[in-house]
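Action item from last week, closing it out:
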Amino acid sequence: NDGSLYPWLGLNAGGHHTLSHDSSSAASATRADLYRWYAERFAHLLDLMAAVPDGEGTSLLDNTMVLWGSEIGTGWNHNIENVPFIVAGGRARGVRGGRYLRPRGMHHNRLLVSAAQYMGLSDIESYGSTDTGSGPLPGLLSL
């Protein structure tokens, strides 16, 4: 149970987990502020990684796939459908960026398979038990 508070965003009681079960408009606004703050932190991390040289003409970000996801897909009920994920970096090693992928009928397990394959674990074809299919997320990697 994540009881983390974010007083600089107005979340002073109840914590993050309680907020994730509240469907009120005030809670929705606080969640938006919270995820905006998370996005800013993620962008800052990417900026720091982009500033670190890592090979001839590449950065640490160019050579690293960075994933960011949410624990909920539809705002307040822990729905695992349409969970948003951001894949950043990895350009020098086969991540095709600058696109919005919306694979239908697939679980996010395929993203995890892609991450494993990106790290060189090419024998990984499935992950977890919620996805009855196998293979990486189509179109993410050009390995």
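Closing note: Residues 73 and 83 are 4 Å apart (CA to CA).
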